[in-house]
Amino acid sequence: xxxxxxxxxxxxxxxxxxxKEEQLSLVALSVIIGLCGGFLxxxxxxxxxxxxxxxxxxxxxxxxxxxxxxxxxxxxxxxSFVILSVLSAGTxxxxxxxxxxxxxxxxxxxxxxxLFGIIFFILNPxxxxxxxxxxxxxxxxxxxxCLYILYGVFIGYSISYEAHELRVKEKQxxxx
Length: 176
Prior knowledge:
Helix content is 70%, strand content 0%. It has one domain. It has helices at residues 2-18, 26-50, 74-99, 106-122, 138-175.
């Protein structure tokens, strides 16, 4: 009887080892990458704001939708991180649709600069605390542009890497 238990246990371990892990779809991975990237780069942007590298705070995202002094409290900061993370998931999906087939960091850099241009040139009137681009000091301009470039590289490289890994796994499964 104990031998049967040992064999059953060994067979179940073999079956567990032979099971393939269910992979998240590339769309789901893109959303997760966007959420993490939004939080990470919002945090880094806030640190840059605290050290006066930039005059633009992550709280600026609350200006078009919220009224009151609570925006300048810790709650406003947390809510701005959440909003930026959700918006980042949307921009990651946009990158997934438009650029997922490109490899390397250059498409991510271009995407980051494109986002910088959209925020600072086109959507600038929505954010009263962000001065027009001609009036922003050099430190804010350079820091913000670099943060957007790094954000774009993070999103782009992560999604391109996951897309490449998924293609490699699919080729391996087909060849087996």
